[in-house]
Design goal:
Length: about 300
């Protein structure tokens, strides 16, 4: 656990430094983002339902045999050099500890600290009432990334590393694992995709809002996401290329969804009160497909 601990210490130090440097007198005007609450709730709910349903139906949806097996025609190991090197150097002796740690960080610690840092950033600029909307936009991007990950896993059918290196019988097959429906879902890493989607969507929303503590949000989120990606390799659940692909896709969706569909309204700022696109009475102003905006 030395590497994740170091990452946490670095994240804390950066967070403290950002908080000290961001303190200033006076009211800071935050940017107004475009959104439609009803539409975004529907999209988020649909993506979440697909993610949960596909996970519960994994036994029926997952390939029964690997499509991407990293083996030569004669059955010998044909894993690429990069993944082989990373597994040799990053794999832990007790993979169960790394597996549990990665899940706790990905599904408890990272989301919780993300909510806390974003809320602090909003409160620091007097925009606490916008924190729920910020959370909705982050959840939307994160669950979309998770849905894309599920589809890709089912289609790719890559054999997980711990399955790939199981002892083979004379017929070239291996004994069944505890969860055979999960054996061929290595590409790409869902933990990495979700963690980087959370980190980058929160950072992007904080930056578009022009929160002065946006660097705090970025530093904390990316630190946890990097530690989680490392732990997935240490747990022998994913190859390095699985983690890198998950980080890339999660980051791309985490940045793209807020920027494309929730871009700041031109010259729209609320001086330390609220930064929503909603008038005093009535629903939010609907400009969800606005492209561009102020970064």
């Amino acid at each position: 656990m030395r590497t994740p601990a170091k990452a946490a210490i670095v994240a804390f130090a950066v967070t403290a430094a950002c908080a000290r440097s961001a303190r200033a007198e006076g009211t800071h005007a935050v940017r107004t983002l475009s959104y439609d609450t009803a539409t975004d709730v529907v999209i988020t709910t649909a993506a979440g339902l697909w993610l949960v349903t596909s996970e519960l139906s994994k036994g029926d949806l997952a390939p029964a045999a690997c499509r991407w097996c990293d083996r030569a025609k004669d059955g010998s190991d044909a894993l690429n050099g990069v993944d082989r090197w990373a597994r040799r150097h990053l794999l832990w002796k007790d993979t169960r500890i790394a597996d549990v740690a990665s899940s706790v960080l990905a599904f408890v610690v990272a989301p919780t600290t993300g909510i806390v840092t974003t809320s602090i950033a909003a409160a620091h600029d007097g925009a606490s009432r916008d924190a729920p909307i910020d959370g909705l936009l982050v959840a939307e991007a994160t669950l979309v990334a998770g849905g894309v990950n599920q589809i890709t896993k089912f289609v790719a059918g890559r054999e997980r590393p711990f399955v790939h290196y199981l002892a083979r019988r004379e017929d070239g097959l291996h004994d069944l694992t505890d969860a055979p429906e999960d054996d061929h879902l290595s590409f790409f890493s869902g933990h990495a995709a979700l963690s980087f989607a959370i980190a980058t969507s929160r950072g992007t929303v904080a930056t578009m809002r022009d929160y002065r503590l946006a660097p705090l949000v970025w530093a904390g989120g990316l630190s946890w996401a990097t530690a989680i990606g490392y732990l997935r390799i240490a747990a022998d659940k994913h190859y390095l290329t699985d983690v890198l692909a998950g980080a890339l896709v999660g980051s791309a969706i985490g940045v793209a969804v807020p920027r494309i569909f929730h871009a700041p309204i031109a010259d729209g700022r609320a001086a330390g009160v609220t930064a929503s696109a909603a008038p005093a009475s009535g629903p939010a102003v609907v400009t969800p497909w606005a492209i561009g905006g102020v970064w």
